[in-house]
User: Fold these one by one.
Assistant:
Number 1:
Amino acid sequence: MNIHAGNSPASSSLAAPSGIIFTRRKALRSGALLVAGLTVAKAAVAPPRAQRVVIVGGGIGGLCCAYELMERGHDVTLLEASRRTGGHVKTIRDPLPDGLYADVGAEHFTNPGYDDYRRYVEKFDLPVLPWARRQQMYKRIDGRWFTEEQLADKAVLGGFGFNAREIDYIREHGFRELPTLYLAPYLAKFRDEYQPFGVGLDECDHLPLGDVLADAGLSAAAVRFLSAQRSRPNEKPAAGSSALFRIWQAAIVKMRGLPVFKREVFHLKGGNQRLPDAFAERLGERVRRNCEATAIHRGDTSVTVRFKQADAEHTLTADHAVLCVSPLVLPRIQITPAWPEAKAYALQNTSMNMQSRVLLVTRDAFWKEDVPSINLETADPKMYFVCETASEVPGPRRLLMGSGSPAQTPEETIAAFRKFYPGKKPDTIEQCIVHQWWKEEPLAFGCERNPFPFGQLAKIWPHLIEPVGRIHFAGAAYDNLPWGQDAATRSANRVARQIHAS
Ligand SMILES: Cc1cc2nc3c(=O)[nH]c(=O)nc-3n(C[C@H](O)[C@H](O)[C@H](O)COP(=O)(O)OP(=O)(O)OC[C@H]3O[C@@H](n4cnc5c(N)ncnc54)[C@H](O)[C@@H]3O)c2cc1C
């Protein structure tokens, strides 16, 4: 389900849906280099005057921004509306049995990728586990299951209707890398990953990808798997994402040297909440829980933030405020004077997706020797992927994880699993948990940004991430790629640098 702050239509994404203890040094070597670079930069630029900064929102974005500002010598207070920090990065143990644990929000990070995120993992010495959830995936297409080997088979690919060039490309690079075959000529045009305009493709903001690739020789299968349908003559394109947006996103991935499909993924042993917890611990009393910001007055020389704590109203005056909450919950905060028009438009028309976390506790690993892999891509909205999590926890009970629609029941989830499960053995499901975010944490609303629809990139970007006077924006919604924890930590660093330099 796509939930919108404004009236913009929902749109689909180009991207495919996504133990031994790994040595942290090896996993994070590139991060260590970044740490070294940052230390030098910080030592060189001491703050001329400590700024007083109020951060609104204690998810990973807000905590990271507060931490970076504190490290640079500024005076920060972080207001978090709920009684816990971490927002969408949340690990649960209760009511799971046998020491099992699960991330009900952000489940993984990648390497390469997630540079800022991994820098903190290294710095705080958090234990990393590689996660095989994207290895040997078993994918359901049109109700049939395919192994990765089958999806590289000439006859299977021909059966889908791919042409000879596409088949050769897929066989060489993999099924999920197909977008690069057609987008490659456009990607090299981009120079600055935060600037999609001015590279000769501005018009593509108003077109679907199919129109831009009209003469590229796509087969019907490529049109389908790339969601590259063309518009009809004399008809405005139906709802969908802007071709410029899609090309730009692919260009950023290329600029960062990442594959289209990030197969090497990791999580923190004991749960990803360990990172926000590490920030919160270091910030200490600067973090104020149960404090919901309700109004912000933006003045020329200061910002005043009103907040509620135990039904009493308080105010804080600061040099800067950083809003680290989803655009979907921002309307709950009264802003005076109102946002400038371009900012208001960008915030109101940014849509975010919502998903529930689905967990199945099983008596044993019933799927072993029954299916080629339990890394399932199901195409079922009630559990559109399945994988095993917390596999390092000893004992016969196992934990399967997936993502579902924002509101669904455990009974519906089990029924969906039993319908799509490709094996022959009966399952041994003992317990099903559905973590519905909108119910459990109503102010952590909207988890990752949806693609920008036709004609909207120019209206929304870069206004979405730009500061308004002394008010700045950080968090998953406010960076160029909508990759949860990566976007949150990147934008947090960007804002901390801006405030420090001011
Ligand atoms: C099921 C699921 C799977 C995901 N998988 C991944 C993944 O594998 N990898 C990845 O990187 N990301 C993933 N994500 C996305 C990622 O978790 C989020 O994008 C990221 O954690 C958002 O962080 P944030 O700090 O921007 O915002 P949030 O986590 O939403 O934090 C915002 C905080 O602000 C608080 N708040 C709101 N309003 C106010 C107010 N008025 N005053 C004070 N506080 C307020 C909220 O209570 C909340 O704590 C997933 C998310 C979900 C739900």
Number 2:
Amino acid sequence: MLRNIEVSEVGMGCMAFSHGYGQIPEEEYSIEAIRNAHEHGCTFFDTAEVYSPNLSGIGHNELIVGKALKGFREDVVLATKLMLHGFGFGSVYKSIRSHLEGSLDRLQTDYVDIYYLHRMSGVPVEKVAEAMGKLMDEGLIRGWGLSQVDVDVIDRAQSVTPLAAIQNIYSMVERDCEAKIIPYCMEHNIGFVPFSPIASGLLSGKITPQTQFERNDDVRNWVPQLSRRNIEGNQPIVEMLKSFAEKKNVTPAQISLAWMLHKYPNVVPIPGSKNKERIIENLDSANVVLTDAEFKELEEALNGLKVYGHRGLGGF
Ligand SMILES: NC(=O)c1ccc[n+]([C@@H]2O[C@H](COP(=O)([O-])OP(=O)(O)OC[C@H]3O[C@@H](n4cnc5c(N)ncnc54)[C@H](OP(=O)(O)O)[C@@H]3O)[C@@H](O)[C@H]2O)c1
């Protein structure tokens, strides 16, 4: 649950159909992959207005998601995000509303379930929260969220208009949010939506120091845990996951997701993949049940291993 909004245990990040992981698939393939995910039980889809090749232009991904969800849009929870650059149209509300209207158009819908501010800019979060409250009253969005924010910003926003979800980076190798943010969200009935939950592929065990990332529009070239040296440094984590997964006859990526599902009741990861089979594999992590003893074993192993590379909440 993301506040009062019910979603499948695992969602689907749609970004890679447009941006961030090298060459993008044919549109037809992406649409089919999204529809397959829905048929497999996924009811939570994540996009953003800025997801376009090389982040140039607006809406490439929203157009794909809109086409894919046509026919069953009301059965799913659709989340998108806006980037706010200053006050634009004279008021924060007008500016946000104008971004939202663009997204609604591209997504072929008349409401968004969760509307996130993608990054904090110069606009005070209280003003954003006020505007989001108004859009909720108007029925244009069902809930709102923030992305890559600390607990102080969350608290200031929450006191104006209660949040449905926080979308921050979180995985076995990016655990900053465990200290304050996830506990705050639990206490205030806010869903926590980890992005890059497989650490951009590291935790799948499929990346080696020899893996060549693509040259064009591939974030893995600068994800800190994925420099050649850090891939080597992180091998003990990958090996630990591989042997754990083998014992349970599942995959390392599934263990990395099952771990966070077991750990917190309010966490709904949105793994990303542009591969139909892996999308289903990731959704199936919801069926991987860890016993308390297995979870403890994983936690202890993780706590004893050094992570090489850290992204955190700052920067990108
Ligand atoms: N709010 C934000 O600022 C923000 C930032 C980044 C992302 N996001 C959202 O979060 C979603 C997920 O994040 P992400 O895509 O960066 O990271 P991720 O889910 O941790 O990893 C994606 C990478 O892992 C690979 N992968 C995924 N599942 C796999 C599996 N089972 N086996 C082997 N490899 C696997 C993918 O390759 P293949 O495609 O080849 O499978 C891709 O290279 C995005 O789609 C987007 O919606 C939000």
